[in-house]
Design a protein that fits this description.
alpha+beta; 9-stranded antiparallel beta sheet; 22 strands
């Protein structure tokens, strides 16, 4: 219990450090308005609006909840943050299409007002605006409150008029529907007496059920909000946004950031209703406290919103827990298309831990916060990471999530609870797991984690192996190159493109904690055919292949089979120790690469990929061959 309290206090301390970055990113516009800079400062798109809304919200949060308990960095005051929060909120509200008091820098307004005047993702930004307003509510003028009301009414008008999308191949609608829940919840929370509030609440239910919507929902006769009516999950279900094995795809492939983000979105939506009620009670005298509203269940605030986490537990049990690692990271078998090692799933853990009583999530929330704090210490200005992929927008998103983690515990305390022990979690999830809809398989043992993916969508074939411990979990980086990557690697052939395509279907089998894969790929514009086998055993991961040269004129210029991307980054380690001998490479005494190469491996190609600096280990670069045998072995713990 004590460790939980310390960890949550550390979230406030991290956000206090982050104010160094916030102050440095602030831009004065006029006595009334200011904004936070981003990729498109003062712009009307995500690169401008989202950054400003998130950093305004975090600034307002600090003034509301941290001023009496956490010191700010030297030279920064809460009065300063208060001014920033108010002026940046004013800019966000004034530039919305429903308010129109000034345009964005590009001469446009942002937001959605209805079916025929919509902007993708604007409801997500509007939720941050609503939270910023809630934190400053007692300081807002009647005019500002009326403008915020117009803004949220307009965004919700669009939600009432639009269709609810579904679809799970390539680009799920789960995430998008999840953020629509948020703006509807915000309108219900801030303006519960509005004549449209009942309609917002009803539409919110529709989006909740159709965020993590699964084929099994079609026959689910559970009443969604039985204290209101008899509508069942099946009644509200429009179609699946998840595959039958509970996985999803976004941006064309599976990765755990998108798999978990709907939990965070539904959690933030479920949070704002009781939080707004707490704020109303705080601002009201004892005699003027409001009676419970239709948005609240009869028994408690906790019961009011728990129903909004539709299918979150099933996604956790069937997918995410199988890919959660010893430091709170979630494995990415296909890599990622934004910054790696963010631990931005922390709010999903908080949602599950605080709202659904999940003690596994309580463990991983603590571990993830520790890693976020470690990464923040690599920067000089309190920002969350070096080399961010989308600059201030990434900083705003990460600050947003750390803030929400603290708020989850504020509204839904975990006092008296104990996180699961890692050994117990490991025991429950030690069996090998295959996700057939994504063609991903993984092994988790007390010594190592390994996975491989024949990704549908983007059609890439890669995997990795890493030690199972919280200190060295990030030794190996999920890495794609062309459409292969770690383990298989790739050839380069003169005059041919570097590519691969799967020939036939892979054969995947699992036996206890281990898996075996057999597959064939055609590579380099089909000049090479590779037949390979990957097996996990008690000793580690074993790879072997035979390569046929189909075109006798083909000239192989490099053999990068067996590559492994090793982190060489201020967050992970910049002083890796390599022992290089013919056929054997040992990295930091933790991971051995044992091959049938007659030459030592080559360690080269330092680059920053997805915000993490890596070095690549190539076992066969100086001794190309058409048959390979490699064992990746993690040192056993003692």
């Amino acid at each position: 219990m004590t460790s939980i309290l310390i960890t949550i206090v550390s979230a406030l301390q991290m956000l206090a450090s982050f104010t160094n970055y916030i102050v440095g990113d602030y831009q004065y516009i006029s006595p009334e308005y200011a904004c936070f800079r981003g990729e498109n400062t003062m712009g009307s798109d995500e690169r401008g609006v989202r950054t400003n809304a998130d950093l305004s919200m975090v600034s307002a949060f600090m003034c509301r909840y941290a001023a009496d308990s956490v010191a700010l960095p030297t030279g920064i005051t809460y009065d300063q943050l208060d001014t920033m929060a108010m002026k940046t909120l004013a800019y966000a509200v004034a530039t919305h299409k429903a308010v129109r008091k000034r345009t964005c820098r590009d001469g446009r307004y942002w937001g959605s007002t209805g079916r025929n005047d919509k902007q993708w993702e604007s409801s997500l930004w509007a939720l941050s605006v609503a939270y910023s307003a809630l934190f400053q509510w007692d300081k807002l003028s009647p005019t500002m409150k009326a403008d915020i009301h117009r803004l949220l009414r307009a965004e919700c008008n669009y939600e009432l008029e639009r269709d609810i999308p579904t679809g799970y191949r390539y680009d799920t609608k789960a995430e998008e529907n999840g953020w629509e829940v948020g703006v509807l919840a915000a309108a219900v929370a801030l303006f519960p007496d509005d004549s449209l509030a009942t309609g917002w609440y009803s539409r919110m239910r529709d989006f909740v059920v159709n965020s993590y919507s699964h084929p099994s929902d079609a026959t689910d006769t559970t009443a969604v909000t039985p204290w209101i009516d008899k509508a069942t999950v099946a009644d509200l279900y429009r179609g699946p946004n998840l595959f039958s094995d509970w996985t999803l795809q976004n941006h064309g492939f599976f990765h755990t950031s998108y798999q978990n983000v709907v939990i965070q979105e539904l959690g933030e939506a479920a949070l704002i209703i009781p939080l707004a009620e707490m704020e109303r009670r705080r601002l009201s005298s004892a005699k003027k406290r409001r009676k419970r509203r239709h948005t609240q269940a009869p028994d408690s605030v906790h019961a009011d919103t728990r129903w909004m986490l539709h299918n979150c537990g099933a996604v956790e049990r069937n997918v995410l827990n199988w890919l959660t690692l010893a430091d709170g990271e979630q494995a990415m078998p296909n890599g990622n298309d934004w910054s790696l090692f963010l631990y931005d799933q922390v709010t999903s853990y908080s949602t599950m831990a605080c709202m659904l009583g999940d003690d596994d999530a309580l463990l991983f929330e603590r571990l993830a916060l520790n890693q976020i704090a470690r990464r923040q210490r690599t920067t000089a200005d309190g920002s969350w990471l070096l080399n961010p992929d989308v600059g201030a927008r990434r900083m705003g998103v990460e600050g947003h999530r750390v803030m929400m983690t603290w708020l989850m515990h504020h509204v839904f305390p975990t006092t008296g609870r104990r996180p699961t022990a890692w050994a117990d979690f490991l025991s429950r999830y030690r069996a090998a797991r295959y996700f057939p809809c994504q063609r991903i398989v993984r092994t988790l043992t007390p010594d190592y984690f390994a996975c491989f993916s024949f990704a549908t969508g983007k059609h890439s074939y890669t995997g990795y192996i890493a030690p199972t411990d919280s200190t060295n979990n990030n030794l190996v980086v999920p890495y794609r190159k062309y459409n292969t990557g770690n383990i298989i690697g790739y050839y380069t052939v003169e005059g041919r493109h570097t590519n691969a395509r799967l020939v036939g279907e892979p054969l995947v089998s699992v036996d206890g904690p281990y898996f075996t894969i057999r597959a064939t790929t055609a590579e380099n514009d089909s000049t090479l055919i590779r037949h390979f086998t990957i097996t996990t055993t008690v000793d580690g991961l074993e790879y072997s292949d035979t390569v046929e040269v189909i075109d006798p004129e083909a000239k192989i210029t490099a053999d990068r089979t067996g590559l492994l991307a090793v982190s060489d980054d201020p967050f992970t380690a910049t002083d890796r120790h390599y022992v290089l001998r013919p056929g054997t490479t040992v990295i930091d005494g933790l991971l051995s690469i044992i091959s049938d190469s007659p030459s030592p491996a080559v360690v080269t190609d330092r680059s920053t990929d997805n915000s993490i600096t890596t070095l690549k280990v190539y076992p066969f670069l100086t001794a190309p061959q058409l048959h390979h045998h490699i064992i990746y072995r993690v040192a056993a713990k003692h």
